[in-house]
Amino acid sequence: MSVLVLFLAICTWTANAASTGASDGLLFRPDYTLDNEAGGWLKFHPIPLKWSQAALRCHHEGAILASPLNEGLSRALGAIMEVHGITSSPVFTGTGAIYTTNEYQSMEGVPISDMCLTWAAEPPATDTTRYCIAMNANGTVTAVPCTDHHPFFCYRKKGVRELNKCGTVDPEYVFNLKTGSCYKTSKQRLSWEEAYTSCATDGAHLAVINSQQEAEVLNDIRRKIFEKETVHVGIRSWNREWITVQGQSLEEAGYSKWHKGEPNNDGGVENCGSMYENVKDLDDGVLNDVPCDGPRHFICEIESPKEAKDGNTLAKKMWR
Ligand SMILES: [Ca+2]
Ligand SMILES: [Ca+2]
C-alpha cells in the first residue's frame, strides 16, 4: 500500500463534532478556554517544543496534544492561530507516527485515514525519520520531523473528568485542612529549576511556606515521604535577596525561619531554597540555602480554590 493511499482521508464529520452547545457547568483549568465548536477546552502554547515534549506538556496539564479530528476542532485551531498571528510556521498537532514510523494516529488513537485533512504537499515516503503532522494557518497539514520545534495546542474534551477539590484533575494533589492548600510530593529528584517547571506544568508552584503551621505541615509530609532528605521549596536568592516563587520576600510570605547558621551560601553557589532535613525535632521545617542544580525531591502546592475564587492575585498567578 502506498503511503499516499494510507493518507487518503475519508470525511466523516459528524453532527456532534461542533454542536456541544453552551457550557454545561463543568470546570477545567482557568488557563484553558472552553470552545464549544471544538467540543472542549483548548490552550495554545506559543513556545515551540519537540513533538514528544509537547505531548508530555499537555499530558501534565491534564489534556492531550490537539488534533484536527473533525471540522469543529480544525476550525477552532485555525481561528486561534489567526488570533495569535501564526501565519508562516505550522503548529504541531497530536497526530504522528507515535509508536511506529509508518502508522499515523492521533493521541486519542484515531487513525489519520479517519480525519478529513487537506495536505499542503504530498507526505514524505516512509523512511527512518519519524514524522508528525503539523497544521498550517490555512488549515492544510504537513508531515514534519517530530524532532522539529513547533508551537502546539493542548485539548481537553468536555465532560471527561471534573476538577477535584484542589482545582486540578491530578489526583496526587491532597488537600490539607490546616493550611487550605493542596500538596503533591515528587516521584523523582530534580534540580530546583526542573522542580519549579514540574510544579508549574501542573498549574501549581513549588511549595511556599506562609506560616509556622504550614512549615510543620510540610515538614510532616517531607518526613513521612522522604524521611531524612532535604527537599526543594519555592524560594530563590537574587543577589542574596530571598524571594518566593510568588514574588514576595520571606517576611511578606509569612515564614523566614532559617536553620542555625543558614543561609551560609556555602561555596558561593547556594541560591536555591530547601527545607532542612530533620536533624532534631526543634529544626522542623526550617530553611537552608543549597545549590540549585543538586537533584532533590520537592513538594508542589496549589492554594485552595476558595482563595482563587476570592480573586487572590497570587492564586490566579499560579495558572499562568
Ligand atoms: Ca503556602
Ligand atoms: Ca546552606
From TrEMBL:
Keywords of the record, alphabetical order, are:
Signal
Please list the residue ranges annotated as the C-type lectin domain.
178-301
Can you name this protein?
C-type lectin domain-containing protein
Quote the CDD domains the UniProt record gives.
Answer: CLECT
The signal peptide stretch is 1-17
In Pfam terms, one family for this protein is: Lectin_C
